[in-house]
Amino acid sequence: MKTTRRLRPLPLATSIFLAACASGPAQKPAPAPAPSPAPQPVASNQPVRPQPAPATSYTADDSNVWQNLRSSFAMADCDADPGITMWARRYTSNPERFEDQLAAAAPRLAYVQQVAARHNVAGEFALIPWVESQYRPIAGSKGMPAGMWQIMPQTANAMGIRVDKNFDGRMDVPAATDAIMALLSRYHDDLGDWRLVDYAFNAGEFGIKRVVSQHGSPPAEPVIPKMPVKPVTREHLVKLLAIACVIRDPGRFNVSLPTLSSEQRLVTVSVDNSMPIARAASHAGMSTDELKDINAAFRNGMVDTNASPYLLLPSNKVQQFRNSLLAENNNGTQNVPGTATLPPLGAALSAADGDDASSAPTKSNGGGKRTHTVKSGESLWSIARRYSVDIKQLELWNHLQGAVVKPGQILKVSAPG
Asked: Which residues is 151 bridged to in the sheet?
């Protein structure tokens, strides 16, 4: 997903945000309307089936993820500790590479920021995946952490996240993010200090509670609490505050932050029936690799609705995905119960039964070759099914660089004579 860089934050807004975190351990942000309570993880052998996040609409007020993020920061600024500035400069030592990495991460980051706000979690914690994985869906080997949050298997089990050979919920961005933010919210209720919340995320809740019971809560200074924790735990907080520092004042580090249009935002879309990932990608007008990258929890090439009843899609792909599913069902190419209830989001589909002149195969002057004119809502997958050919054959015969087709496009649907 390509984003456009070169949006610098407003200096006035930045100075206001810096002033907002000048003293003492930050308090939890004011509650949003009717937040759901954060459940405590309970070990269970029955993973919870994830549910799609509430539908999201975007307005001019939330179009700039960076302004939203800065306004929700609740911890110390760039100059609170020398280590923060050192790590901020390390992150941005190659400005162009940093900008490219942040541009690639921006859709996931924006999604995480909205979930953090819904749970009233300080904005810095939307940046934890940068520290852990740069928002990449890292697959973990046996017994190792996985996903952009780098969740350990035992932690996933305690949180009710399914992990098996077919599905790894640690890489399910909506479900894992919601579970993590609920956990962080509860940590703050218990510990009362966002710095200790980060320590608990890295070192474990009970270990930090034990340290606090023995040594008391840390004072506001120094910003990086001098508590008997491992150096890696202390460094985790420094790194988190460092990437927040770059977001606060990118010009200080000679970098620009990418813009992210509402069309590039990630949203959850309910899926009624299981299907191959390649087919889902074709419906959405995306490459299989693109769809897999943002839906990495599905590990066996199938979108399994028994494991997760939704897909994560860029918002500008939702209309094509839903219309394509509806057209496929109406054309009778696949019996997919439930998809007929999906409302078309664009222009009305024409000739849903597939028998009109625009969809009828025609013979070319070559004698044996047949062609097909693509209708609105059709996908390469549904066309391949209609003519009983392999989708790869269609790509080869028509010199396609992927499975995306457009209405009015004329395709060869049989081998050249």
From this structure: 146
